[in-house]
Amino acid sequence: MYLALYRKYRPKSFDEVIGQEHITSTLINQVKTGQIGHAYLFTGSRGTGKTSCAKIFAKAMNCASTKNGSPCGNCEVCNSLDDPSNIDILEIDAASNNGVNEIRELREKIKYSPINAKYKVYIIDEVHMLTDSAFNALLKTLEEPPKHAVFILATTEVYKLPATILSRCMRFDFRLVETALLEEHLKNIFNKEGIKYDEPSINAIAHAGEGSVRDTLSIADCVIAFSGENVNINKTLEILGSSDKKIVSELALKIIGHDLGGVLEVINDIYSSGKNLTSIGKEITIHFKNLLTIKNCKNYEKLLNVSSETLQELILQSEQVSTENLLIFMQKFSGIEAELKYAISPKTLIEITALECASLDNQKKN
Ligand SMILES: [Zn+2]
Fold first, then answer.
1. Cys staple from 116: which of 33, 80, 132, 242, with CB 3.0 to 4.6 Å?
2. Would you say the CATH fold of 243-358 matches that of 5-11+21-173?
3. Distance from the CA of 134 to the center of ligand 1, in angstroms?
């Protein structure tokens, strides 16, 4: 079975975590000095290493013979914690079930000491998805945790957490990973996997990953699945410039042309073809940013990783819209990105936003 690159290359020690040294150095220090807190909050965009760091940290604080602050991976404790049936490190995914039962169960069992480890660690992923009652239950536990308990809360949307929870946690903000670091990481992995590549395709994949290690490697998986062991820029662009981008470009064209009817038609086409509407907000923001780049940067060809065919299309569009309007479009669509994920009708939200943009007055074209 083919193992996704993201899973295969999930970091097992702090020095394998990419672009988060401001966090890992503090955690390493705490492991070395044994000053472990009761509650941690890991926040930041998806795919930046929150869960990986939580798992490494949970093992490191328990490992009997840590190596420079990271778990050794060989001792009895490390081995027992690797066993999926261990109950000393527990992962709760708040997104999948609002967590009410899990938190209740957690409160009942937390008083029992860990079995093999020193600390009992609870990793709560997407903690912002907990219901109010689950938050209240969690808060009671955070107020008086048993000595052996450590909480690591992870979230992409920290602003949704109650202040009472925030104030009890040591907070760590994970950053988007720089493109240069993603490129380096990709090259290492491609070399290990025996995959041949050219520099432009590495650059294009890393750019498309937009600061997320997970997204970058998922895109790399798609490119490899399509092009085999010889990755080159043409095949990479074919994958990156997939049909979704054509649809996004069409929608942008209708917005720019103030064609309200056209806007509704394109959105309806996207909807009825079963495509994921929630990603459209993000993709069209990128599209408008590309137009903005063409209008305002002399070396736009270097900045945009697109095929020459796409570039011609973008240039044509950029001539029909003002920088001011592009800024407004980007603000409006990036503003609904988070909302789209939980909207009951993403279609309506996209429609309202697109129609608002399409009805903006014509402004000067420069
Ligand atoms: Zn160990």
1. 80
2. no
3. 33
Determine the 3-state secondary structure of 89 from DSSP: strand
For ion ligand 1, residues whose CB falls within 5 Å: 63, 71-72, 75, 78
d(CA 31, ligand 1 centre) in Å: 12
Condensed to tens digits (0 to 9), the pLDDT of residues 161-172 reads 999 999 999 999
Q: Cα dist. 36→33, 150, 194, 321 in Å? A: 8, 8, 41, 55
**229, two tokens:** 């062991």
* E strands present in the chain: 39-43, 89-93, 120-125, 149-155, 170-173, 196-197, 230-231
Q: How far is the CA of 116 from the centre of ligand 1 (A)?
A: 12
- Joined together, the tokens standing for residue 52 give 């990986």
The residues, any chain, with a CB within 8 Å of residue 161's CB and separated by 6 or more, are 41, 127, 128, 153, 155
**CA 46 – ligand 1 centroid, Å:** 28
pTM beyond cutoff 0.85 = no
pLDDT in tens, 235-275: 887 777 655 677 889 999 999 999 999 999 999 888 876 66
CATH number of the domain at 5-11+21-173, out of 3.40.50.300, 3.40.190.10, 1.10.287.130, 3.30.70.890?
A: 3.40.50.300
CATH number of 179-240: 1.10.8.60
Q: Which of 172, 12, 160, 143 is nearest to 95 (CA)?
A: 160
Distance 58 CA to ligand 1 centre (A): 11
How many Å lie between the centroid of ligand 1 and the Cα of residue 119? 14
Domain parsing of the chain, residue ranges:
5-11+21-173, 179-240, 243-358
CA of 65 to the centre of ligand 1 (A): 5
Whole-number Å distance, alpha carbon 14 to ligand 1 midpoint, is 14
Distance of CA 13 from the midpoint of ligand 1 (Å): 11
DSSP 361: P
